[in-house]
Amino acid sequence: MSFQTPPTLEELGRQALLRNEALAISALEKLPWTLFPALFKDAFNGGHTRIVKAMVATWPFPYLVGTLMKTPNLEIFQAVLDGVDMYLKREFHSGEKLQVLDLRNVYHVFWNIWTGREDGACSAETVNERPVVKVLPRYALRRRHLKVVTDLYLRLRLNGEHICFLQWVRQRKDFLQLHCINMKIWTVPMCTVKEILSVFHPGRIEVLELNTGWDVSTLARFTPCLGQMRSLRKLFLAYIYKNTFRTGTRTADREERCISKVIAQFSKLHCLQHLSMNGIYFLKDHMKQILRCLRNPLATLSITCHHLSQSDLNYFPLSHNLRQLKHLDLRGILLFASCLKPLGVLLELVAESLQSLDLQGCRIKDSQLTDLIPALSKCSKLTEFNLLDNDFSMPTLKDLLSHTANLTKMNVEQYPAPIQCYDDYGYILVERFAQLCLELMDTLRALRQPKRILFSTDPCHECGERCVYDLGPRLCPCR
């Protein structure tokens, strides 16, 4: 038999107020400030739009955050915006304290935020229906310069929510301090991006993800905006393609000018610490220029799904901006024809700082891994290591694992199954796979106790799934 805890007197009082909307609104001016957060949560969750609107207009704390904006009830979201309009129209008096409206799609500990302290962060859902934006005449607004903080995730075309919110802030931008902290742009036309950046100043963006499918000439036209992002800490560029000009000397010269224009902007990103570039065609033979332009040492360098030249690799250990790397990701960079000794030198230089290394899909061979093993054995801070989809023999993998005694902080490590697990046609030999992986696991356990480790084959020719060995063999569905 279960017993339900009876509501407290305070809870009963809040419920009574919510049942009498007119009484609740009239009581707000005299309501003890300690009751505001709980009543606001109840009104918000219960869909009491008029009460929410009135409470925002009389909010007594420095912060009003989007903690609760996980609801699909857009009437409530609109009520919050309407309450802000009411706040901006009010005559000033000493009781007004609202300074920041935080609409970011992250979770905050509500009870800490309303007192002015920010704690916690995890993903939350966005509002996903179209609200009706009410036009507020500018002459009705007073100069409060309320700070509005948001994230924008824009895909293909702007959806109804973005259109409405952008319309709201555009009409009020003279009375608001607009801060977009995290901007993600996926296949959005250039004109739309520039229009958004005319409202949300580029200098306040801290995280930018451009996954646009532009060619390099279009990216070059965007560079004046990129160069203004003086607060940018993280930059992710994806899928920038070769120009579609006609071939010829003039075309090559024009393209090189576009590339130089893009690279020059890196010197203006004073706060950049994390740089990720995925599928950027012009990186080959230009990494030296990019790394020289950087103003600060990088904590993260991620270059995936394209090509690097030997001269690019040769410059890595010479760049002072890579000497403090914590995360290095070269997934999908085909290195089977490259000399990896420069990469080994870089790994030795960052041995005291490197925490994650991802070389999946590089198709590295035995002799190349042998060049890296001495440096890898010194990377004592490594917590994540990925070598999947490379081509190593059983003796070379044993040699690698026998040099990992110092890697005691490793949380996740992923290794390819040795090439002896395949027949002459590339098909997986199941029994040999299980036997050799057990032998490799025993080699490692003789030195240290791994936390999370797996050996994996390439995808099966028949079903496309992998055979994996962790606690034991897990075979693909067709085996």
UniProtKB/TrEMBL annotation:
Name of the protein in question: PRAME family member 8-like
GO CC annotations on file: cytoplasm
InterPro entries with a match to the protein in the record: LRR_dom_sf, LRRC14/PRAME, PRAME
Highest taxon listed in the record's lineage: Eukaryota
GO biological process: negative regulation of apoptotic process; negative regulation of cell differentiation; negative regulation of DNA-templated transcription; positive regulation of cell population proliferation
Alphabetized UniProt keyword annotations: Leucine-rich repeat, Repeat
Family to which the UniProt record says this protein belongs: Belongs to the PRAME family.
